[in-house]
Amino acid sequence: MPILPRTAALGLIALLASSPVMAQPATVTMALDWTPNTNHIGLFVAEAKGFYDEAGIEVQILPYSDTSAATLVANHVADFGVIGSIGLFIQRAAGADLVATYALVQTETGRLVFNGDREDIQSPKDLDGKTYAGFGGGWEDVLLGTMIRYDGGRGEYETVTLGTSAYEALYNGAVDFTLEVYTWEGVKAERDGREQRAFRYADFGVPDQHTNFIGTTEAYLAAQPDTARAFISATQKGYAYAVEHPDEAAGILVAANPDAALDRDFVRASLQALIDGHYLRSAAGDVGTIDPAKMDAVGNFVFASGILRDADGKPLKDAPDFSTYYSTDYLSPLQ
């Protein structure tokens, strides 16, 4: 092995000392709330288009599991996760360290739905005495009771808990009504030729909401503010790109999730519903924006309903400061 002259060796040492060390990209783990679908499309677009690479981060989208994304985040198993709006309020009130940082949709995607040939159902009060196919959440009774009573009914109905089997039971006439996400189950029903009618929650006394968020913990934001900002900004860019390039975005989602056996035409139709309804991007052009007025309205609504409980399971006596349940500091102005 040749030996470097002393002057050359010293020069090499000086060069190495002055050369910047290549920084490793920060790793961010992201938990989904369900199997991959169009609510998640911006994440996969941001990954495929290199937006995360440009931001200097490596994002690991975790496989969906039976443990809720909110629980994974609150217990520091995942850095970020898709968190339902009502789940955020309930778990945070009970002491979970959760904070919303990105609104996946700008307005409610859920609706109360029933078969289109039901002439006996013209408004929510007609649901009194009928059978609801439910999913086992306490929020459902608050939601349905509010809508029916707002319309002049008693809010009295039978419930059978069926989970995702609710949609087949509805179609077969085994139950009278259920809840669905219009941009997924609703689009599927339309494509399958199943005529439906629906009531929007916000038309019958329930505040409009963002439905779901990308959220993290206050502890993570305090420890990794720059990484959080890079992740949220790049994700925002991914969703904005999906709105502008829906054909490409649908293909990216399908290609990134071969085990999910997604139907590309269905994914494309679902994405179009999200675009046309101004869910992913509002009519004013907002992408990812959290509306403080909506957060206060929903927070006060669920507080008044009595479903917000402390860590001991006791109903909260005073309404929390709901401005602490979310942060608007991590989005970037879109160009």
UniProtKB/TrEMBL annotation:
InterPro entries: NMT1/THI5, SsuA/THI5. Residues 1-23 form the signal peptide. Gene3D superfamilies: Periplasmic binding protein-like II. Pfam families: NMT1 (PF09084). GO terms for biological process: thiamine biosynthetic process. Keywords: Iron, Metal-binding, Pyridoxal phosphate, Signal, Thiamine biosynthesis, Transferase. Residues 37-249 form the SsuA/THI5-like domain. SUPFAM superfamilies: Periplasmic binding protein-like II. It catalyses: N(6)-(pyridoxal phosphate)-L-lysyl-[4-amino-5-hydroxymethyl-2-methylpyrimidine phosphate synthase] + L-histidyl-[4-amino-5-hydroxymethyl-2-methylpyrimidine phosphate synthase] + 2 Fe(3+) + 4 H2O = L-lysyl-[4-amino-5-hydroxymethyl-2-methylpyrimidine phosphate synthase] + (2S)-2-amino-5-hydroxy-4-oxopentanoyl-[4-amino-5-hydroxymethyl-2-methylpyrimidine phosphate synthase] + 4-amino-2-methyl-5-(phosphooxymethyl)pyrimidine + 3-oxopropanoate + 2 Fe(2+) + 2 H(+). GO terms for molecular function: metal ion binding; transferase activity. Coiled coil: none annotated. Pathway: Cofactor biosynthesis; thiamine diphosphate biosynthesis. Homodimer. Belongs to the NMT1/THI5 family. Responsible for the formation of the pyrimidine heterocycle in the thiamine biosynthesis pathway. Catalyzes the formation of hydroxymethylpyrimidine phosphate (HMP-P) from histidine and pyridoxal phosphate (PLP). The protein uses PLP and the active site histidine to form HMP-P, generating an inactive enzyme. The enzyme can only undergo a single turnover, which suggests it is a suicide enzyme. PANTHER family: 4-AMINO-5-HYDROXYMETHYL-2-METHYLPYRIMIDINE PHOSPHATE SYNTHASE THI11-RELATED. This is Thiamine pyrimidine synthase. It comes from Neoaquamicrobium microcysteis. The lineage of its organism: Bacteria, Pseudomonadati, Pseudomonadota, Alphaproteobacteria, Hyphomicrobiales.
